[in-house]
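Bug: token stream looks shifted between consecutive jobs. Job 1:
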Amino acid sequence: MTIPPSARLYLRPVAPVDSPIGYDGQVARLAGGLSWFAAYELIAVEDGRRVAQQLVPVERLPALLNQLSDVQAERLRTLAAAISAQRPVIRAGERTLRLDQPLVAGILNVTPDSFSDGGKHGDDPEAVARAGFDMGLAGASLVDVGGESTRPGAEPVWEGDEIKRVVPVVERLAKAGVPVSIDTRKASVMEAALAVGAHIVNDVAALAYDPRAVEVVANAGCPVILMHSPDPAQSPHGGNGYRDPLIDVFDWLEARVAAVVASGVQRSNIVIDPGIGFGKSLADNLALMNGLTLFHGLGLPIMLGASRKRMIGALDHEAPVERRLGGSLALALKGAEAGCQLLRVHDVPDTVQAVRVWRGMKDHGLVGQPG
């Protein structure tokens, strides 16, 4: 395959293997986790269009580098190193979240109008917090508390009301030692939640909606989850489509991470989220799910939020949200196999069980014993 010298190159880990044992030099580790792979998909892009693709076995990557320009070779070295590097832990109060295996983050909406569970827990902070405690007991490593629906067409919530919704819940969970992320686009809500013990900011607008958001996160020194959406300064469901969903989202996240780091946020505190369902068609979402491993090239932990999303109904006779458990589990396990470190879900016990079974199979492969 001829690679144009002006092309921008990408590497996507492919060809997963059950175990690295006996394959020295032939396989590489995925994000310092439990998965290994035997090849890269090399993608060359010019003017937003793929001009070449090639499968490159892991052991042949060094030879390929010698055939490329210095700039292209250095980019591939950087991508390959990022793909395999161990991800830093997340500090959540007295808890440490290790990212060498997939962790489950439970969704706790304190809203009357969220698409899936709006109003499910009522408006009593004690009752809502109790639901969060139950998630922790069921195996969730993180509880993600949100006070504003991000479903298409949802009305914006005044920041004062959002604070009143989330702060009492966050405070109760944090005091009990539960790792908590605050799901919000608004700097004042971030500040209020962090002040009562939230550990992580999860922003569907990637700190681009509120001009003060980057400053709040930088000053707090807390981890932050940056989610892709086409037009975050306006609405997470805007945009005009994609030339290549996988490449476009990768490039957007790469640029957004660089901008956030330049504004004072430590790179080691950043988690990325490809934004399944946000300003994306069914075809876009499927392209992202199938290509998830490409995002390891950014060298950052990945959160996958696909639970009960519209794409499941679209693939199963318009199944309503309450009948999307099977699809949610399928997407979560796809994320686990792709090395996603955080799985953001509504159905915590079922997902935890699925991940534990997946983990058991991985552990058996690493033991290397037949039978």
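Job 2, same session, no restart:
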Amino acid sequence: MAVIPWLMGLALLAQGCLCSLEQADVGCKTWAQKGDDACCQECHDGNHLVRECGSNPKQLCKLCEPGFYTQKPMDYGCTICTQCVGAQVTLEACTAKTDTKCGCKKGLICGDESCSFCVEKCGKGYELINRTCKPCPGGTFRDESNEKCKPWSTKCPNPNQEIVTQGNASSDIQCVTLVPVIHPKRSDHSEDGHGALIMITGAALMAFCTITITVIVALKTRQKKKEEKPAPPKPIIRTPTDDPRTLIAIECSFHEAQQEQGSSTESLISKETIGQLIV
């Protein structure tokens, strides 16, 4: 137990060193002259009142000693600085003008506004009661945005929303926006059947006509090919003359015609007739 006073003394000494480094005004800040004396109306920050009136205004107020502070410039004394102990940690050291600012170790939070003690950090669905985390009662919840459990909402925030999930210890009710459903207009079944029958009949007629036209075109094309045969070449008949060259040309023409027809006995003019014509 003797260690604790020693640690407190060491802390006060450290704070005193810090305070000594601070450049602070000493004495009375504002005063009023009464006869030969000056009467102090307000001390400088970090000073406490020594006496109200005197000949020297600087001697009317005195700076707080190390380990003490004041925020009331007309008090006759200073307040001892707060010590951060246990689960607390020092965030800002004490000065003559301000008290020590304490915080809490990781995983803990301050139990009050002045952080005079530390408590366990309560998770969702729990709240701090008597420095202990306790579950939220039925019908209430607590999320990270709340400090204490609060009742579930009784309705959705917007009129076109609907509750889909009730709340629990860690969240409020869940709402969704309603989307209007438009149902298509139903037609009469008899009209639907009649229209379907018409479509089927039309498709069948179209298919029948297409097949018929295709068959007719194919038959006509085949018949036309049979009728189109190459015609035999016609013989060239020239009028006989007395010119031997002309007769020779006629004879050659008849010979060519006979060769094409494949028969030499069926010629119109014989070689004897040609010889007579030449004589």
